[in-house]
């Protein structure tokens, strides 16, 4: 694929490395200087690519989504902390007949973890076990709780009608840890996902880019994983 990457931080650089290893062409890297230019300029920078992957900052997400849609290039949105703007993002993609994949977390493992947690929540729904969430990330992560933690809270809340506390830690170089607990007076059961590196997030973003490059509409990355699982089941 011919890719454009928005953001030249640690995640953007990692996506570039993995993309090259997979044989993709990273034809354009949009830096903060490029992103500060007008909409028309940004559209022209993105035009002609097969997909765009954005790991920049939350404040730039809507502009990047609009630019990619106007350029006719599918966008994989890996930036977090913009949840409040989701409705506006969907309107922009629909208005310009674009394509967008977004998600709280692009790790395939995390998206499978969502399904494990959902099944656990179903089992604990009829008990008096108290659910809780703990998450930890590196000190440079801006949003807290993480988008993944908020997604996990939604997964639990779909089955358990009670308050679900979320505790966040920001320290050091932690790639990302999410722990779901079910606590009672007698015992405690926990489920944990621990990211060893950020490569899983970058690999998932590239997977999403391959999946969305010929599509239109708005998709959550969890839906991409659902399609993959269905495809495997059909083949078997």
> What is the CATH class of the largest domain?
Alpha Beta
Please indicate the percent range of residues in DSSP E strands (runs of 2 or more): 15-25%
Helix coverage percent of residues?
A: 40-55%
CATH level-3 fold name of the largest domain: Rossmann fold
First-to-last CA distance: 28 Å
Number of strands: 10
Rg for CA atoms: 19 Å
Instruction: Please indicate the count of domains.
Output: 2
Order of strands, main sheet, comes to 2-1-3-4-5-10
Task: Let me know the largest β-sheet.
Answer: 6 strands, parallel
Q: Superfamily at the CATH H level of the largest domain?
A: NAD(P)-binding Rossmann-like Domain
Task: Describe what this molecule looks like in 3D.
With 236 residues, the chain is an alpha/beta fold. The chain has two domains: 2-106 and 199-235, Rossmann fold, CATH 3.40.50; 108-194, Dihydrodipicolinate Reductase, domain 2 (2-Layer Sandwich), CATH 3.30.360. The chain is built from nine helices and ten strands. It has helices spanning 10-21, 32-35, 39-46, 61-71, 86-95, 108-124, 147-157, 199-212, 221-235, and strands spanning 2-6, 25-30, 51-54, 75-77, 99-102, 130-137, 166-170, 177-183, 188-194, 217-220. A six-stranded parallel β-sheet has the order 2-1-3-4-5-10, with helices on both faces. Helix 3 (39-46) packs across helix 4 (61-71) and helix 4 packs parallel to helix 5. The two termini are 28 Å apart.
